[in-house]
Design a protein that fits this description.
The chain is mainly α. It contains 13 helices and no strands.
């Protein structure tokens, strides 16, 4: 027997074995699903395929959400719901009791309101800078520039990094003996308190989060820019429109649906900021960068007293804000349509 014929025979045996194994598994699945179809009918089969996802959703999302409602209206430090006394709206009353809502020091749960004010300030500056930076980057990357594919990849690369990795990299750069302070000392300047000064810490939290997440929103806006017909720009050029007139009269109006999506998504993400800040500053210095999710985490998990009810009530308040932002997005999209 020649090498060629031997090779063919081995290949034939391999093909036969593979085909036999495949047919075996196909026959098993055909028997199982054929029997199910006879029992529940063809209209019930979609529910069979959706059932695994529904189980995962129910166990890891729906059940914790329902449990969170129970915790929000119960008190004590016990973990199991049946061991927790019913307190009604006491947790919400504790969070909302203030002599002046503009002064956290007058609030019964002052740390909660400090977290709210910190979160509000972060959302305003971070979202504004995020949308502006993503828009400028998308417009530049939409032009015919050299190495355009390379720069598109570079701007999206930070999105692929873990938020914890991003925070640790920047913490290494900005710490007292980090890279930036090393450059400042080399230039004859003093070290800057990037991580121990409240204003610097807030500033860098915004910059780092924009750097880490901007690529995602840039991609959305870039897709919106590429969907604008090129004929409109050609017609504007023939009519003598300059770059600003073209951008303000054509690009921005047609890009507005994508801008609304970016705005609302960035708002929702900014309200939920936690991982980057927690790894970068830990909420410090003091409470300067403690935001709402970190407050919930600290009350429910980091505090020795484990105030699950207070943390659950705060999370429901945050959920209400996120639902409100989602409804705004839905309404805005309908208006644009």
């Amino acid at each position: 027997m020649t090498v060629q014929s031997r090779g063919k025979s081995i290949k034939d045996i391999y093909d036969q074995v593979s085909s036999g194994i495949l047919n075996f598994f196909v026959s098993i699945f055909d028997f199982i699903f054929g029997t199910l179809q006879r029992w529940i009918g063809i209209k019930g089969m979609p529910y069979v395929f959706v059932l695994p996802n529904l189980l995962i959703f129910g166990i890891f999302i729906l059940f914790p959400m329902l449990l969170n409602f129970v915790y929000a209206f119960t008190g004590g430090t016990n973990f199991f719901p049946d061991q927790r006394p019913w307190v009604g709206t006491a947790n919400f009353d504790q969070l909302m009791t203030c002599e002046s809502f503009l002064d956290p020091n007058t609030c019964r749960e002052d740390l909660f309101w400090r977290a709210i004010f910190n979160t509000a300030g972060y959302v305003v500056f971070q979202v504004a800078l995020m949308v502006l930076a993503a828009l400028i980057t998308a417009v530049v990357l939409n032009r015919k520039i050299k190495a355009r594919g390379f720069f598109r990849s570079v701007y999206f690369y930070p999105v692929l990094l873990s938020p914890i990795v991003v925070a640790l990299i920047w913490k290494w750069i900005l710490q007292e003996n980090g890279l930036f302070n090393g450059i400042l000392v080399a230039l004859g300047s003093d070290k800057a308190p990037f991580l121990v000064d409240a204003q610097w810490a807030r500033f860098w939290v915004v910059i780092i989060s924009v750097w880490a997440f901007m690529g995602f929103y840039t991609l959305i806006l870039l897709a919106g820019l590429q969907a604008i017909p090129a004929d409109l720009y050609e017609a504007a050029s023939i009519d003598g429109a300059n770059n600003w007139q073209t951008f303000s009269k054509i690009t921005l109006p047609l890009l507005m649906p994508s801008m609304i999506v970016v705005l609302v998504l960035s708002l929702i993400r900014a309200v939920q900021i936690f991982d980057v800040v927690f790894a970068f500053t830990g909420g410090g210095p003091g409470t300067a960068t403690m935001y709402l999710v970190q407050y919930i985490y600290s009350k429910g998990f980091a505090s020795p007293s484990r105030q699950f009810g207070l943390a659950a009530a705060a999370s429901l308040i945050m959920a209400g804000v996120l639902i409100f932002l989602t409804l705004i997005q839905q309404f805005a999209q309908k208006e644009e349509a």
